[in-house]
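Contributing new complexes? Match this layout with fe (ii) ion.
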Amino acid sequence: MSIINFSQTYQYNFPTTIRFGAGVIKELSAYLKDNNLSSPLIVTDPTVAELPFLKEIVSDLKLARLKPDVFCEISKNPVKSDVLKGGEAYKETKSDCIIGIGGGAALDVSRAVVLRVNHKRDLFDYDDLIGGDKYVTEEVPHFITVPTTSGTGSEVGRSAVISEDESKKKRILFSPKLLAKIVFADPELTMNLPAFVTAATGMDALTHNIEAYLSKGFHPMCDGIALEGIALIGQSIEQATKDATLESRAKMLLASLMGAVAFQKGLGIVHSLSHPLSSLLDTHHGIANAVNLPYGLQYNYDGFEDKFEKMAVAFGLPNGSGDKFIDHIFELNTNLFLPTKLTGLDVKPEHVEPLSDLAVQDFCLPSNPKPATKADFIKIYNSAL
Ligand SMILES: [Fe+2]
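Output block (do not edit by hand):
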């Protein structure tokens, strides 16, 4: 149990307005008009651009005499040139605000375009890891987000992960100015998500809530949000995956938002295990987290039994089940038809060394409740093979 120092000071941020519920997307036109906005640039991905609900959003905006344009030329793993093209599209269409609609990739590009419009240095001069946020000094366009998956929670975030075109190296653009002014979180937009995507993105949301709750630091508000996020996912992830109802999809959408709000406190070793899998083997982030979650939790368990007890009870297990929580996560993966071993993700013994080299440098590791060395990562990856 960590010792709390009450003579220290802390900062807590909960700034985003969230409209949540079935049908809130219909409020978009009125919101734009109330804010004297008339020409939104919708930034989305090519798949979402073809879906009926996106076409309906565009036609509703036109019916309200607004002038929407759609920019959807973005890569699956967004790169700098996507953002530069989006910035040009904003100028050419004479847009006056940006609406990001989609999953993590679309929302990351939309947020990076928000930055790009009035910030003309090389895009990666703004990389947060080299102190680039100090250059984010200009005004940014009015920014609205509409999530269509329940996983990353990027709709409430303030950073965008964009890769270099050639090397695919991931860079992080960050500024509190990149927060959406409002999120329209409408669970009806998630109703047609396939089972596999629901399970994989849902496990990312669960990992966010769990890692935020376990992460270092004194943040009782985030802890409360994370525990309730774990509870909502415990109540709904299997139903949302196997036999989706509005209630189960609504709970998953809310829990993914809550996970992202909570992880302002920090993430941990599960994300450090997963990020290298995406960099080296292009593994889906949610699946990587699903597989790594129980193994990362095994590493963290000793010394944090009280927190595991609270998470187990939040998830719906009986009192006194803290030591069963990890087994329950293994069973959950099986019930969701997800792999439980890294071999199920085509990881081979020879990958363990390079994966461990990257994991030990991962930016999520410093907030894990326990430190970890390269040797620890080798052990964890081997146990998960
Ligand atoms: Fe994540």
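Reviewers usually confirm one structural detail per submission. For this one: The chain has two domains: 10-189, 193-384.
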